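tl;dr need the bound structure. longer version: we got a ligand (iron/sulfur cluster) that a collaborator sent over and nobodys looked at where it sits. i said id run it. heres the input, straight from their email, havent touched it
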Amino acid sequence: MKICHVSDPFSLQMQEKHPLGSGAKVLLTSVFGPYAKDDAYGSRSNNIMELHHNQVTRVQGPFSLRMFHRSSGLKLIQANLDTSCTLLDYPDLDRFVSELRDNSYDIIGISAIQPNVKKVEKMCSLIRAHQPGATIVVGGHISTMSELDKRFDADIVVRGEGVRWFRIYLGEDPNRPINHPFIPSGIHRRCMGLNLDRNGEDATAVILPSVGCPIACNFCSTSAMFGGKGMYVNFYETGDELFDIMSQLEEKVGVQSFFIMDENFLLHRQRALRLLELMEENNKVWSMHVFSSANALKSYSMEQLVGLGISWVWIGLEGKRSRYGKLSGADSRSLVREFQEHGIRILGSTIIGFEEHTPENIDEVIDWAVSHNTEFHQFMLYTPPQGTPLYSEFLEKGLILDEDEIDAADIHGQFRFNYRHPNIPAGQETALLLRAFQRDFEINGPSVMRLIPTLLKGWKRYKNHPNARIRKRFERELKAMPVFYAAAVWATRAWFGDNLPMARKMNDMLTGIYREFGFKSRVSAPVLGRVVFYHLRREAKRLADGITYEPPTFYESSVKSFGSRVMETPSKLTGPGYQIG
Ligand code: SF4
């Protein structure tokens, strides 16, 4: 097995090419499902495929935000090869085997994270049995594990950015501009029992401006995979290139909202400010959802952030007294409040189980996190994945658990530590993590409801703004408020009938909506609210009956359209869709 480090120029230079070059037939695939049930290959019901439900809103019952995300890395690779390339996303085992039986490939690429290692082992053995001539390439976060040759039978493991690697391997020009496929930001979105899938201008598209993060927190597997400290790959170096891609997506599919899938988009200041200039010159009313460190956010004025359409930020709050410096100098609670005053919704992320956390002080840590009252809050266990500096540090100290003490499938930050914690006895962390989610829900209520006061604050502040471009964005974001949101709040108030503090909170929200939108809201809230309440109760019952959700299977062949840098591939849903478990 060869391991290629894409961030290492020497490793890339030594890279051999496939004998068929761009005449090869390529299959790219994600690992097989089902994903929401425990199985022998590492699927876990406590580490399901729905990102938000899994690690943000997991205890919020029918209020939890449910959706799936496509395998963006595979979509990007497929869109950037001249070579014929098929993408099989979210197959089950039978669908994967039937693909191997029915179509022959020269190269089969599998993308996986570390908990999926047994699935990769199974897929490699199936490929060897059905297509012994195919070269097996494995990439993704699994690539930073140790002793890979003992874990599965692949030919090549690619650690780092896959477009460049595949282009070189297939004898294509690695320096061609990067095409950007349309990737919807969420699929099969639902909440409160309602289908929230959106098309056209109401949809959100994923944009991948860069990968990797130069900050290199020592527990971060993403940063480690793309080379660590100071390393990242820009697919689009300039604001002009990014603007071009976003304009093309707007033209082709009508989107006005973009999920910027970049670990630290705002760190690339020159690019972001040029993008702002172009948005102003061309009167673009776009919204952007970003990941950001607090200090990167603070380096922009509020006027610049609002002008860029920053409407949602995923931000690391780490925890009180954390040794990580991303918040140094920033009072995170005031920061969150300030952004909310301008209509910017926050997904805060808190880590449970830093070295200094103990069973005695953990409630203080949780209360501090909850006191931010962010719209969404992710809680994760402090977990060093293999390949990170923290893993090496803990290994050297003899703290890492042996693989017979913990299954790789259980190392994902939502269940157990993969090491001996200095203060928290083994096994207690699962309950502490759950306590954090529950406290946040009990005090702050359903995340989808928390969006409403922030949206209203932004609207009131900017509805009369002299710049029509700014006004229009807030108008668009408020479109659903007078009728749909009013009804949702009415239903939520009914749901929390016996919980007086929460019912009062909903009442205040509803009063705020009535005051702003008057008759329309007063009429629609009780009428439509009853319909929403019916769906809410029905969803609660389905969840109580044990329903689980699985993503559909996508099977997409590349269609070349090099006149444009945006490439679309037809998608065909072949999977079972929702499954009752
Ligand atoms: S800032 Fe976030 S993305 Fe960057 S290294 Fe730290 S954890 Fe990873």
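gonna send this back to them w/ a short note. The pocket of iron/sulfur cluster is lined by residues 213, 215-217, 220, 222-223, 263-264, 293, 316, 326 (CB under 6 Å).
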